[in-house]
Amino acid sequence: MRILLVEDEMNMAAALTAALSRHDIVVDHARTLEIAEEACRSGVHDAVLLDRKLPDGDGLSLIPVLRREQAGLPIIVLSALGSPDHRVAGLDHGADDYLAKPFSTDELLARLRAVMRRPAQIGESMVNVGQLRFNLTERQADVAGEPLDLTRRELLALEILVRRAGRTVPRSALEEAVYGYDDEIASNSLDAHISRLRRKLSTAGVEIHAIRGLGYLLRTAS
Q1: Does 120 score more than 60 pLDDT?
Q2: Is 92 exposed, middle or buried (0-12, 13-18, 19+ CB in 10 A)?
Q3: Which of 99-112 are b and which e, b meaning 16 or more Cβ less than 10 Å from the residue's Cβ?
Q4: Any idea which fold 2-120 has?
Q5: Domain ranges of the chain
Q6: What is the mean pLDDT of residues 96-100?
Q7: Is 95 left (phi over 0), alpha (psi -120 to 50) or beta?
Q8: CA-CA 20 to 30 A from 51: which of 28, 64, 179, 194?
Q9: Which fold does the domain 126-220 belong to in CATH?
Q10: What band does 118 get if pLDDT is binned at 50, 70 and 90?
């Protein structure tokens, strides 16, 4: 999962990024509405965590912009403005949830899981390719019922390959899914992740093909 965190308090942003990263979530951080609006145009995020009191305005004003870019994008408002009136305003502006600060990481993760299970997405929650089964909601993979032991970046790479099974995934899209904006990417690091994935999927009845000059394709083994 890759999320956009819109938060101007650097300590809060750093703490959230560290906490979410421990749960295999890539976090892209934007300090202002302007930066967030530019980031959301990439279309790579699975959810948005949105503060309200930002240097250039109320975070709620960003929600219509996010909805235009990705209509079903889950949005959770995180704000110190936690009165009932503030919560109602956030939900009326189109947020999927509203969480008042301070909050626990466990509660935030539960809220994220909940918005990712919305009815519009339930039909797409489980993907099967060969013997590989990937639960997109719980972000777990298994082969013939046996859980796969994957690193965070292997899991992120597999997730996008599974979502687009049978189609070539451009290398740039894979790198965007696996690495945050601030990560340094070695020239062969993505290839190393894919190589390890191939070994771990050797009994899954699937193949990951390198499409020269384009990217990678996951499909049922022939």
Answers
A1: no
A2: exposed
A3: beeeeeeeebeebb
A4: Rossmann fold (3.40.50)
A5: 2-120, 126-220
A6: 94
A7: beta
A8: 179
A9: Arc Repressor Mutant, subunit A (1.10.10)
A10: low
